[in-house]
Amino acid sequence: MVLAGKISTEVGVRASADKFFHLFSKKLHDVQNHCERVHETILHEGDDWHVSDSVKQWTYVIDGKVHTCKESVEEIDEENKKLTFKLFGGDIDEHYKIFKLIIEVIDKADGSASVKWTIEYEKIHEDYDPPNGYMDYFAKCTKDMDAHLVNA
After folding, report:
1. The domain containing residue 57 runs over which residues?
2. What residue stretches are annotated with the Bet v I/Major latex protein domain (predicted)?
């Protein structure tokens, strides 16, 4: 009976690693303007989008179904362009005890960049599937956000 797991996907981007990381570390409220799969994001608690005591509420679409959850920042590592978020509430709590999202924006040796999404999770029950739909969602959102950042 395996309840905990970790899944990852990495997506190449045309925007610079700095530009992509800046979107998540300083302009998280703009994600909804760059990705059609994100319907709404609101600051639920706190005064600043990018501090650990703030809570945001997200409304998004995965596989044609509208989902909601709340999110808080656990860590921002500027040097390594890595962010860690805790997702909870809404649809997340129906299936997972723990749902941690880690975003790493990677500078490649050839000057290109990629975005690595990792989900660390613990399921409530062994019959629930791993959050593979979320990996597809993040990969598609990365492409949408990249297109906007390249044209900005």
Report:
1. 4-151
2. 2-152
Q: How far is CA 143 from CA 35, 59, 63, 101, in A?
A: 9, 19, 16, 18
Whose structure tokens read 């998540």? 24
Q: Which amino acid is at 133?
A: G
Residue 3: how many other CB atoms lie within 10 Å: 14
What residues does 54 pair with on adjacent strands? none
The dihedral through the CA atoms of 50, 134, 64, 71 has a sign that is negative
Helix (H) or strand (E) holding 93: helix 90-95
Helices 132-151, 17-26: inter-axial angle, 10-degree rounding: 110
C-alpha radius of gyration, the chain, whole number: 15
What mean pLDDT comes out for the span 101-108?
96
Instruction: Identify which of 108, 106, 86, 105 has the alpha carbon closest to the alpha carbon of residue 97.
Output: 86
pLDDT at position 1 over 80:
no
Going from the C-alpha of 35 to that of each of 78, 109, 137, 144, the distances in angstroms are 23, 28, 11, 5
